[in-house]
Amino acid sequence: MDLIIRSPRIPKPGETIIGSSFLTAPGGKGANQSVAAARAGGRVYHVGRVGKDEFGGVLLSKMSADNVNCGNILVDKKHATGVALIVVEDSGENSIVVASGANMQVSPKDVDNLKDLISSAEVLLLQLEIPIDTVVLAASIAHQSGCRVVLNPAPAQSLPPELLQNVDILIPNESETNMLTGLPVDSQTQLESAALKLLDSGIATIIITLGERGAQLIQRDRSTLIPPFEVNPVDTTAAGDAFVGAFAAALAGGESMEQAVLWGNAAGALAATKLGAQPSLPRREELNRMLQEI
User: Domains in the chain, ordered, with CATH?
Assistant: First the structure.
């Protein structure tokens, strides 16, 4: 659950600032991406955990209302539902602290019990707000069955080789690309050099999200900038999750890689025009209108 305060700016250490508003909104990277994919027209099964508390009940209810299949979300009686404390500047930029709670109890056993579900999917979409060994096993099961594995490496952390060798498409932002490679990403040349280092790990496709500059699609034989959509941002909290979810839905629906990235750009732009995480995620009709503009 996201606990959001609007503020003139993000406070400095030790500083107290009077904010202008407060709201709670469903969030969590995996849940955001599932809802984004479902709203974009995907048939989505979500795997994870919530706590046996009020926040958990609300999150399950909201996701179900967005046609996300929640039958494989476990209710953890020992750990609280994850929460994120978010400060949103008037400019739309944000600062986030996460208390993972039940998310960090999603275990390899949880995943092993769902081999058939994972193997039957077109796309497995992964993030890093659950234990890394669980992510590694899920990617391995999917890869062995021919299901395409899409990893959004956030929050940024070092990734084991056994995970990277089972990832088909990696979607980092610029700071995550820098953290994963140790290389600067301040210029186009540096960005492509960092992506090539990631390709050397066995990944076929790197998509680096660039915010208001669009997204760079990089494979061995090409590097293509997919153009952005111009909007007036209000809150960028879930823009990256909107991108990833819409991209995965488009890919699973048979769209080309370039068109799927364009869907992601449109979804991210639309999400940035509204406050909150899941409340800001666009629906298919909104995406269609924006895509028709080009």
Answer: 29-80+103-292 (3.40.1190.20)
